[in-house]
């Protein structure tokens, strides 16, 4: 879920966009900040509101423009709705999709302290003073929030997202540094960790599986020399753990044994974004979108964008693959066959930026854009791609937007500002 500005291969209207400073820090140097962090304890406070918007912003749009959310209701008149509430947070995000999550009636943003806000009111429910490790995801699975330990002791910890109470702990060992959870399924938590040398340096890393009930090590496998523990994006489907990395590797391992099923190089990375549906993994590679069989790596289908257009980040939402390209063409695709369900030019017609993250509530698809200018949260008809409205908070913050939903509200994070929008 991880935090991703434009890649070196991204172009929009022929203009190159360099990666944001936060993206570079998150992917290349997130682990370096770990040494500066110390552990904290969870503080529960049902009434405290440590992260209130200084302007009490829910009722005060920050500009008078159409995109600021001037309308009541859910934007049925083409104008974005007013936020239900707005809070200033301690968010330290880098654009990754897993830095804004909703679970157990709270919404969390990656940062220090890690604060859980009530989804309905925005009030702080609990906080974790030690916060999150830069570059590590907020990983949800089996009703548990898994966080990388912020000490150099190989610890990974699980919390109840509703209360903030620790419910699970595992320790990979002192011979390993900075274990980071990358994926979770019904039985195991998967982590990447550096292997420590005698002089305290690290040149290699391992991928390991930890039992999500006992915390015991199920298996660990050393990765090839030259691979990195940062920039990992992963997902689990059945017996297959699939992940990408900085070295343009697309790798699948057996979740029961850790053995490598197959691996191959990708031509483009998009910082490793991919989508998984049932038995296929779908990877954007520049002008081509390819789907590979998880069992053997054979290509199942592919699509090509128009000349000079590059595919952006994909997402499978309710069994439909949504993806846009740099020419601002939006597509809905059957993830199993590659059949295009619809194609829309509405983004280009409206002069909007391209979404890079998607969630769905009801019949509306919500996309979060990478940069702020003429971007923000774009609400689209999930059946046609037509644009219904766009929301922007008017701050001018250059950081990527992130979006999440609990089905009742849509949460939009922009820099440190978190907005709850009606659906």
TrEMBL record:
Polar residues bias spans: 1-18
Compositional bias per record (Low complexity), positions renumbered to this chain: 68-82
InterPro entries the UniProt entry points to: PQQ_b-propeller_rpt, PQQ_rpt_dom, Quinoprotein_ADH-like_sf, TAT_signal, WD40/YVTN_repeat-like_dom_sf
Region named Disordered: 1-22, 52-90
Domain of life: Bacteria
Cited SMART domains: PQQ
Residue ranges occupied by any Pyrrolo-quinoline quinone repeat domain in the UniProt entry: 82-146, 251-390
Name of the protein: PQQ-binding-like beta-propeller repeat protein
